[in-house]
Amino acid sequence: MARWFPRFSGRRFPKAGFACPYALGALLFLFFAAVQTADFDLFNYLAFGRLFWSGAGVATTDPFSYVPTIKPWVHNEWLAGVLLYPLYETLGGTGVQALKYVLGLAALAFSLAAAKRRGASAWVWLAVFAACVVFWAGAFAPFRARVFSLFFFCLFAWLLEKGRETGYSRVGPALVVCMFLWANLHAGFWLGAVMMGLYALGAFRGKQVVRPLFLSLAAGLAATLANPYGFRLWTSTLVHAAAPDVAIQDWLPAWAALSTGLWFYGAGGILLGAAALAALFRDPDRDPHSLLLMGFLFSAALVRIRFVLYLAAGAAIYLPVSLARRGASGHGPGSRIAMTVLVLAAALMAAGDLRLLSGRLQTPGDYFLHPLALAVPAADETPLAGVYYPTGAVRHIRRKGLSGKVLPSYAWGSYLSWELYPRVLVAMDGRSQTVYPAPVRAMYWEFARGGKGFSRFLSAYPPDMVLLRAGSPAAAAMAGLPGWRVEYQSQGSVLFVPGEKVESRVAPAAGTAANPFTNAGFFDTSKPVPAGPAGTVRAFGKETDMPVKKELLEILACPKCKGPVREARKGDGLVCESCGLFYEVKDDIPVMIVEEARPAKEGE
Predict the structure, then answer these.
(1) Are 525 and 261 in contact (CB under 8 A)?
(2) Is 226 helix (H, G, I), strand (E, B) or coil?
(3) How confident is the model at residue 404 (pLDDT cuts 50, 70, 90)?
(4) Which SS3 state, helix, strand or coil, does residue 367 take?
(5) What pLDDT does 247 receive?
(6) Where does 78-199 show beta strands of DSSP type E?
(7) Does 177 have pLDDT greater than 80?
(8) DSSP secondary structure code for residue 55 in this structure
(9) Residue 311 pLDDT exceeds 60
């Protein structure tokens, strides 16, 4: 493997100056990347891969959903599914986890090699990487295809830095091959084109020969057209990036993310990007390549927080040499900037450590002690506010021989397709706008919020089953809807089927009633989410008297203490007597948000 690394002072890597910092960085990375709970997107890849290897090839019409879908279907990560399915079938979750670690450790090696190419100290690289590793971890929830983009980003940085020294014509063929693979594995391949373009611009400013790099860029873009969808892959990814689904939080701008469950990424992206640009700008060399690329990544992270991952990767590559150059002397403004960045790095890392450790300590079991295990936890194995799967409901559907069309909670759609297709078709899943037209998505979010338009989706696309998170607003609304009954319920899920209502109570999941889109923080919680009216339910757009008012009130819970709430005497809100809080009702919808509650007045 040594041949992949560049020469320094006539010696090849690895050596002590490379191996020791890399080993420490690898240990740090493995700690943060040792996530065992399967990400919801993994089942999207596996279901597609199974379809491909069953003889269907690369499908251009979605087979998994029963609602109208976009035609043709462009699966931006089709090759990821084709690779993952046989790996999963052969080695199980261990194979998926092993691939994740191999890609992550390779990205780490190319990151350090690129920084060393720029003349940075490996130990300064380690200090910067330690601050950034908490953001890297977002790509390694097993398994998300953007881990391929992180790997190619670091590989591209090393190849381009090598091209600056030896000539871009020598690395051009490798860049073109990487662009071809990148485009078929993940939609982030546009980042590779941007990197080549910015390096070409930087080389032009430095009066270097740029013609080979421009030729490589043109050939690389042409190579991306060698995919099953041709030019449609370009249009699909560009439209997806320009107008992402607003319900998915990692498409939020950094400043908007500050008020959501992803505040850490928003704040980290803003602070890390600003500090990195300040340090690079005060560097006496003011290398145009690093300034242009980091400026682009910082701007992209401000607009979409999913780019914080690449901003952190870029900081680990381009920042160390500037810190070492101006900070080594121990005086001057460069030193102060270096110290500020390093202190910020330590603070961010400590916050990330505590955040991750806190989440793991709340999780029963010992998943994180087995780095090659892949868990699909049920609700009773993980906090209900986190990621869990309706495993009991799936077993019940199989045992009872149920089939047909199911309207699920958004995050569970791909899991149901993996477990139950072709007997069961879903209404919605995590592929969102790459598969579902905007009107269908908008109608689905109305249903998920349990608000005024709750029943529009049910009447437009009638399902045979509805499978929802326990305690979600949609589950609360379904509990009072005529013509539906509870077929199965557990601590975390409720399965409804058509039929006469029977005596049943849908138990609330503590802490989840205020957020119907819970998926480890990746869905919109920045707006008040309706939890269902206390005294009425919406049935096909009309207000209907609730048969048993007390029953629906018991479904709702105070988001602060998880205790019961009662209707205010004036009927204008809900009151939690334990906390002494009053939750206002707006447009017949209780706003069950602690920050928007006020102290209850005497007599309310």
Answers:
(1) yes
(2) coil
(3) very high
(4) helix
(5) 66
(6) none
(7) yes
(8) I
(9) yes
Under DSSP, the state recorded for 260 is S
CB neighbour list of residue 401: distance below 8 Å, 6 or more residues apart: none
The closest alpha carbon to 322, from 294, 351, 358, belongs to: 294
Say yes or no to pLDDT of 192 above 60. Answer: yes
Query: For 91-116, what is the mean pLDDT?
Result: 94
Instruction: Quote the pLDDT of residue 130.
Output: 85
Three-state DSSP state, 279: helix
What is each CA distance from 459 to 432, 540, 541, in whole angstroms?
A: 21, 7, 10
Reduced to 3 states, what is the DSSP secondary structure of residue 234? Answer: helix
Residue located via tokens 């009872």: 400
| Whether the model pTM is above 0.85 | no
Contact criterion met (CB below 8 Å) for 426 and 413: yes
- pLDDT at residue number 413: 95
Torsion, CA 490, CA 495, CA 498, CA 503, rounded to 10: 20
Measured CA to CA in angstroms, residue 456 lies from 408, 451, 539 at distances of 15, 10, 9
Residue in 97, 98, 125 with CA at minimum distance from that of residue 13: 125
Q: List pLDDT tens digits, range 270-292.
A: 888 887 888 787 776 778 888 89
Which of 314, 157, 306, 179 lies closest to 241 in space, CA to CA?
306
Average pLDDT, the chain: 79
Sign of CA dihedral 293, 298, 303, 309: positive
Angstrom distance (rounded) from CA 548 to CA 578: 24
Using CA atoms, how far apart are residues 425 and 427, in angstroms rounded to an integer?
7
CB-neighbour burial class of residue 595 (10 A; exposed 0-12, middle 13-18, buried 19+): exposed
Distance CA 181, CA 155 (A): 12
- Give phi and psi for 562, each to the nearest 5: 65, 15
Q: Give the DSSP H or E segment for 488.
A: strand 484-489
Contact 189, 179 (CB under 8 A): yes
DSSP 526-593: SS--B---SSEEEETTEEEE-S-HHHHHHH---TTT----EE-TTSSEEEETTTTEEEEEETTEEB--
**537 Cβ neighbours under 8 A, 6+ residues apart:** 477, 480, 481, 543, 544, 546, 552
Q: Residue 527 — pLDDT band, cuts 50, 70, 90?
A: very low
Q: What is the dihedral of CA 353, 358, 360, 361, to 10 degrees?
A: 130
